[in-house]
Amino acid sequence: MTVKKEKLVLVGNGMAGVNAVEHLLKLAPDKYEVTIFGSEPHPNYNRILLSYVLSGDSKVEDIVIHPYEWYTNNNITLYTNQTITGIDTLSQTVTSDKGLTVSYDKLILATGSNPFMIPMPGADKEGVMAYRTIRDCEIMIESAKKYKKAIVIGGGLLGLEAARGFLNLGMKVDVVHIGDTIMERQLDRTASKMLQAALEEQGINFLLEKQSVEIIGGKRVTGLKFKDGTIAEADLIVMAVGIRPNVALAKEASVECNPGIIVNDYLQTSVPNVYAVGECAMHRGIAYGLVAPLYEQGAVLAKHLAGVETGPYEGSILYTKLKVSGVDVFSGGQFVDAEGTKAIRIHDEFTGVYKKVVIKENKIIGAVLFGDTADGTRLMQMIREETDISGMGKTAILTDSSGGGGAASGVAEMKDDAIICGCNGVTKGTICSAIKDQGLTTVDEVKNCTTASRSCGGCKPLVSDLLAFTLGASYDKNAAKETICGCTTHTRDEVVTAIREKGLSHVREVMNVLEWKNEEGCSKCRPALNYYLGMISPETYKDDSTSRFVNERMHANIQKDGTYSVVPRIYGGVTNPTELKRIAEVAEQFNVPTVKFTGGQRLDLLGVKKEDLTAMWEALDMPSGYAYGKALRTVKTCVGETFCRFGTGDAMGVGIELEKRFERLNTPAKVKLAVSGCPRNCAESGIKDLGVVSVDGGWELYAGGNGGVKVRVGDLMSTVKTEEEIIEYTEAYLQYYRETGKYGERTSEWVHRLGIDRIREVVENEAERKQLCERMDLALSVTQDPWKQAIDSKKIQRDLYEVVELK
């Protein structure tokens, strides 16, 4: 007998509500039929990371927590870009602004909060806005292209993140704050002043103890006037002065609010079967605005809805562990000195580290950490458990995070429900179970599997410690940070970010600015830097041939006897008698000892002398096939519908078009494509970097295949209908690989690392796909055939191909 599922409706597609649903699905996957409404046109994303999108360090897809596939896989009906405007608590239905009415047995209100806009004269002018959503980020990014001066009102976390984003966008920025210290809710005075100094070094200007009274200008803002009569110029003003619970919907349905939606210890509202969670909820007189308490609420709510025994939600001890413009900060509990408290402080002005714990009656009640936040989780555990510290050495509380037994013993003492990643609410138990069950060995693998460290990254040291604790001696801690090579301590992402932010334009400049340990670099890092520079600035960067491997520098594959092989481009493996005659005649003219068909349907002329290369290329009058390069190699095809009685698609035509489109495209590693005209797959499309297969009504695109030493069958990425879409989707896929792949990393490894769901989400997002295609257009617009360049340049011939006889 099939048990009828109850209907659960979630109003709000944000972090708190969806996290509660995620918990519920794990506890009772078959209990509810779930429907979610979200006002924004996006799946659930991490609002904490909006500043990374604003600054250009991340793309929108990078901050998505639950992609569309997650909803589909869990049988959740999702309505995006649709706002619930009415609740009928008698008939138990909700109605949206699109006229859709859905019934519920249980209703969760997770309507979040609204940014507070100061009601001052001029607040309605063009160029005055809040900072709360992806759309706000997009408006700010567009504004930065036209305007040069911004003001952020509010010296809290959100305001500082907005300010840092404007700096990265090339704008000058003032932060206006009514108090005399910034982030006063999270930091004490000492830490606040240290943070201010660090941000001033980055370029942010602070106007403290300033009360804003009027926004001046005509139709658009031109400045901000203060109570003391002074004026600060601005083209754009962002208000980041606080939030208010979004309760309009609840009030209209006669749900008790004051000022947030009143909930009890099981998140129940005053109306039967209606619950509230997140920033809209008011519990015991407190509306929480930090993510960790909201996840704690969601865990209790999920257990209650699942019918699982659970203790009540009794409130949260507030704590924050995050990066503010690259600076690590932590605070938790009651960290301000008060009557009856004593404090332990460490302040190292040389290294910029400040630590403080506040103690009352031999118990830690609060802590502030600046510059080094590794002890934050341990201190929060002591605060929560009211640990008696009377028998401890007081300074050891701050100076020994491991209790003398190393980092692993520090995390060993934590309980399984200790929150390791506050941004995403991931516990120690979840991480340790994933490490054991999934065979995880690196921080990146833990991030991809559990989302821990996916957000601000502040918990990466703890994740690394948990790997060491769980895996023991088999854990390679150096794997926690994969540097480009031994010449540097920097990772691929750190190098790419530095090139973009600092405007670096030469290989040696990168090594100098980033303080390479080996000032000459090595054969691993120099080609990587050369690729990253060209990928970032295709129009302006001049390729450094000295930083390329010999095959790429010579544009021919060197053989073990010192001769070279020449592989001309044969588009899609399709040739003609004239081309074949010319290849044969050139092979005879230059006494080529061996001519071989390659696995990619081309002809390889083997045994060519170095001094004959340019003359041979000129005689062939064909473009380079890039058989030597980290670039598009071949596009293998079958005959398709043109000749095959089973064919359903024009494999040869599509293959030729793909090869002509992407020839000469530099990529992190070699790329091979294939097009099969029917599911029989004669072109072996399933084991190519991108394989295209004709099916009834369209084409399937397979990503990340590999037929080499580590055979990997490609993952189905997308299904498209037209040949034009094949080109468009391939452009987006290859450009995303170019921008996020590590140098030398094949797509098979890249797809495994990022996950096909994430790649699919990017490629199938129309706006993101368009942007990737535009950047691909730019990259391809500056490419030139290297064989033709060598033929036309006596200098290139003299430097690379002429044999100098010694006398």
UniProtKB/TrEMBL annotation:
<keyword id="KW-0274">FAD</keyword>
<dbReference type="Pfam" id="PF03460">
    <property type="entry name" value="NIR_SIR_ferr"/>
</dbReference>
<protein>
    <submittedName>
        <fullName>Nitrite reductase large subunit</fullName>
    </submittedName>
</protein>
<dbReference type="InterPro" id="IPR041575">
    <property type="entry name" value="Rubredoxin_C"/>
</dbReference>
<dbReference type="InterPro" id="IPR045854">
    <property type="entry name" value="NO2/SO3_Rdtase_4Fe4S_sf"/>
</dbReference>
<dbReference type="InterPro" id="IPR006066">
    <property type="entry name" value="NO2/SO3_Rdtase_FeS/sirohaem_BS"/>
</dbReference>
<keyword id="KW-0004">4Fe-4S</keyword>
<dbReference type="InterPro" id="IPR007419">
    <property type="entry name" value="BFD-like_2Fe2S-bd_dom"/>
</dbReference>
<keyword id="KW-0349">Heme</keyword>
<dbReference type="Pfam" id="PF07992">
    <property type="entry name" value="Pyr_redox_2"/>
</dbReference>
<feature type="domain" description="FAD/NAD(P)-binding">
    <location>
        <begin position="7"/>
        <end position="283"/>
    </location>
</feature>
<feature type="domain" description="BFD-like [2Fe-2S]-binding">
    <location>
        <begin position="484"/>
        <end position="533"/>
    </location>
</feature>
<keyword id="KW-0560">Oxidoreductase</keyword>
<dbReference type="Pfam" id="PF01077">
    <property type="entry name" value="NIR_SIR"/>
</dbReference>
<comment type="pathway">
    <text>Nitrogen metabolism; nitrate reduction (assimilation).</text>
</comment>
<dbReference type="InterPro" id="IPR012744">
    <property type="entry name" value="Nitri_red_NirB"/>
</dbReference>
<dbReference type="InterPro" id="IPR006067">
    <property type="entry name" value="NO2/SO3_Rdtase_4Fe4S_dom"/>
</dbReference>
<keyword id="KW-0534">Nitrate assimilation</keyword>
<dbReference type="Pfam" id="PF18267">
    <property type="entry name" value="Rubredoxin_C"/>
</dbReference>
<keyword id="KW-0479">Metal-binding</keyword>
<feature type="domain" description="NADH-rubredoxin oxidoreductase C-terminal">
    <location>
        <begin position="320"/>
        <end position="386"/>
    </location>
</feature>
<dbReference type="InterPro" id="IPR041854">
    <property type="entry name" value="BFD-like_2Fe2S-bd_dom_sf"/>
</dbReference>
<keyword id="KW-0285">Flavoprotein</keyword>
<keyword id="KW-0408">Iron</keyword>
<feature type="domain" description="Nitrite/sulphite reductase 4Fe-4S">
    <location>
        <begin position="629"/>
        <end position="770"/>
    </location>
</feature>
<feature type="domain" description="Nitrite/Sulfite reductase ferredoxin-like">
    <location>
        <begin position="559"/>
        <end position="621"/>
    </location>
</feature>
<comment type="similarity">
    <text>Belongs to the nitrite and sulfite reductase 4Fe-4S domain family.</text>
</comment>
<dbReference type="InterPro" id="IPR023753">
    <property type="entry name" value="FAD/NAD-binding_dom"/>
</dbReference>
<dbReference type="InterPro" id="IPR036188">
    <property type="entry name" value="FAD/NAD-bd_sf"/>
</dbReference>
<keyword id="KW-0411">Iron-sulfur</keyword>
<dbReference type="InterPro" id="IPR016156">
    <property type="entry name" value="FAD/NAD-linked_Rdtase_dimer_sf"/>
</dbReference>
<dbReference type="InterPro" id="IPR017121">
    <property type="entry name" value="Nitrite_Rdtase_lsu"/>
</dbReference>
<dbReference type="InterPro" id="IPR036136">
    <property type="entry name" value="Nit/Sulf_reduc_fer-like_dom_sf"/>
</dbReference>
<feature type="domain" description="BFD-like [2Fe-2S]-binding">
    <location>
        <begin position="419"/>
        <end position="468"/>
    </location>
</feature>
<dbReference type="InterPro" id="IPR052034">
    <property type="entry name" value="NasD-like"/>
</dbReference>
<keyword id="KW-0001">2Fe-2S</keyword>
<dbReference type="Pfam" id="PF04324">
    <property type="entry name" value="Fer2_BFD"/>
</dbReference>
<dbReference type="InterPro" id="IPR005117">
    <property type="entry name" value="NiRdtase/SiRdtase_haem-b_fer"/>
</dbReference>
